[in-house]
Input
Amino acid sequence: MPGDTITVKDNRSGKTAELPLLDGTAGAATVDIGPLAAQLGYLSLDPGFVSTASCKSAITYIDGDAGILLHRGYPIEQLAEHSTFPEVAYLLMHGELPTSHQLYSFNADIQRHWMIHEALRSFFSGFHYDAHPMAMMVGVVGSLSAFYHSELNIALEDHRRKSAVQLLAKMPTIAAACYRHSVGMPFVYPRTDLNYCENFLNMMFSIPGQPYYVDPVFVRALNLLFILHADHEQNASTSTVRVASSTGANPYACIAAGIAALWGPAHGGANEAVLAMLAEIGDIKRIPEYLDRAKDKNDPFRLMGFGHRVYKNFDPRATLIRKACHQVLEKLAHPDPLFELALALEEIALKDDYFIERKLYPNVDFYSGIIYRALSIPTNMFTVMFAIARTAGWVSHWLEMKADPAQKIARPRQLYVGSPPRDYVPLKQR
Ligand code: SDX
Output
């Protein structure tokens, strides 16, 4: 109820503090610990934000125990079945599903901004051919600030929305350019007669001088993967975008910060790591050996694609992607031994007490690489694919926080455990 509080008693001083209890639309009530410092002089510590909310948000809700994921209240299963990635991006950014006119003009807006500045294309020649595409992505997206800084007054909502559309539009073009550079192929210009996923596949795989057939099976699979990766509450990369944006930094630089955070194997880099892990395991007979390694505290090996900070049940996205793997591989008559291995690994792990006790289930990254492989997307591009989709979430959280008059610069406190004050010791006396 509004006005509810919890009482915190300080056993040192005998003093108490009344901390407000805040109720959201769903999920756990949240204690506002802001008054703690003022009333009792204490700070709070929660490394990794395991049980600490960093903000209020209306964009996405996850019930980790029930395996529920909602975007603006709509279940991910329904969006996966009925929607398109641009429509989900609109929903995340604006809060409502678009009318057909709104969706038409949103798509037209994105298509208008698909191109990247011609000068930006020369950046790629500075990268060695075998530069990791995520390294190129971070650098090139960050440099967009140099091209659009002058037109940008983020105090104006109109400028903010335009930057959000610019980013949504240019990410696929930059991603495809990273791939084309890495394989020594000429860049392909975006085509406004194709939709978001068709255009991306064309920029990735079309061969100059030859017509490129955009396989509808590929388009449907890509659309699903982009929808399932679009947003996920305050994950590490989204939180990074929020922290960077809280200083008033240029949105292109903030999204580049999010791309950098996403790259880590504990986060978006896991999809690439899953394929490497499956290839290393190689055979169903070796699964017990690797499960033992995953359980061995002295072995740094972890079961990539398993576990989640919030989901303590199936990640609904993993369930949808597993189903899509079956469909795509059957449609393409393209059996993938790594998919069979992944299914076996999931089955065996989910019967193992270690994983059951810790509620470790497959997450979004466990099966996504199987579909990317079927679409002929190379492993080192998997996290780039994640970044394209998550841009919808990143820009939506950016817009949400920039519209919040109460937002402040993110500046966490700390528990100091270093040396007490001491005097300088001259070099000769050390
Ligand atoms: C994403 O936040 C998001 O929403 C992220 C994401 C999104 O859409 O943005 O969903 C995308 O990043 C998915 C996660 C991708 N990462 C991986 O698949 C990497 C493998 N997973 C783990 O590294 C781990 O599960 C995390 C990082 C995902 C979550 O780590 P937590 O919540 O900090 O959990 P923890 O490390 O404290 O683990 C709790 C226990 C530990 O064992 P005990 O000390 O209790 O004995 O579970 C164990 C861990 O050792 N454990 C694992 C494991 N994950 C956790 N053991 C083996 N293999 C694993 N994968």
The CA atoms of residues 134 and 306 lie 22 Å apart. The chain is about 50% helix and 5% strand. The two ends are 62 Å apart (CA to CA).
